[in-house]
Amino acid sequence: MSITHKFKTNKLIDVRIGKYDWKVEARVLNLWRGFSRTGEAFKGFNLLLLDSKRARMHAFVPGMIADEYEQKIQVGKIYYIKNFTVKKYRTEDKFRCVRNENQIILNDDTILEPLEENEASIERCWFDLYELGDLRPLSKQSTYLTDVIGVIEEHDPIGKIRNVNGVIQSQIKFKITDGSKSVQVTFWDEFDEYFTEMLKKETVYPVILIIGSARVTLWREEVILKNVGATTFYINCNHRSVVEIRKMIAQNMFSKNKLANGGKRCATIYMVKDIKNLGDDFIESHILCQVKLTKFQQLKTWCHPICTSCYERVHVLNNEETCSFCKRVVPYADKKFEVYITANDETGSMVLILEDREVRTVGYNY
């Protein structure tokens, strides 16, 4: 009998301070170590965990038990983890890979046992993706790292530079784009060498890249993504956002958006009355307006279920949520926001449709 049948487990979203006998099932997404100022790796190491509810949490394995537990852990595998403490982050704790106030600390009493794939339904990867156009404010903080996605636009070979300490370092520079915005990426040393080797093996082009836990920096007013210890990358992985971008490329939407906007925002601010008079030439164009959001439209629901494979809408058929595109039942469909809202300025009013990312952004700001 498997462990999961013996015990009821907790979800990572419920894990908090004040209890010790937690029991969770989680996939290890990443394992990494921090480094001292002299470049020496710490003995203790970090883990990024993901559970069946798509909640992620950071865990730390102290140096005194690091050797024992590192032999047991393999990145990508699922584990049953029991008996650990929970600790709040300190204010000075920087470069956190998840936006969570708590972290897990393993100890001598922690039980860690591997599970088979059929014993827990946990996705192989999950991200909190940010739009490339939203990265600039994140360069002004060092508390959190950021997940991004984009198509590799430019790819220079590995280069060598001498840093301020006179040490020779290798680096690779390239750009990723989401069709309307391009951002510079710089990977360093062993990380860039590993990335380059994996890129050489890829046969599907254009390459869609997800960077997990990247550091957002600013150099001469240009946003640059860099790798730190917690950073990972996924090339053409099986993720909903990769599927969506691949669809855009196949429908010639991606290059069209890029050529039409050149990665830059429109400089003209339109009034509502002018927007209503725009012709067909402005269909799918990006424009700017300054309006006040005044009223939500009264709809039955503000979100709709989508398929976890093809990300099309699902519908109820014979009392089951079914994807008409995949022709399959979707028992745990994802949810995407779609909100209709009235907006106005001094020249008139109009209805805006806020989709998933916009709704989450507005909700976060308010």
TrEMBL record:
Limits of the Replication protein A 70 kDa DNA-binding subunit B/D first OB fold domain: 11-113
InterPro entries: NA-bd_OB-fold, RFA1B/D_OB_1st
Origin superkingdom: Eukaryota
SUPFAM superfamilies: Nucleic acid-binding proteins (SSF50249)
Pfam families for the chain: DUF223
Full protein name: Replication protein A 70 kDa DNA-binding subunit B/D first OB fold domain-containing protein
Organism expressing this protein natively: Heracleum sosnowskyi
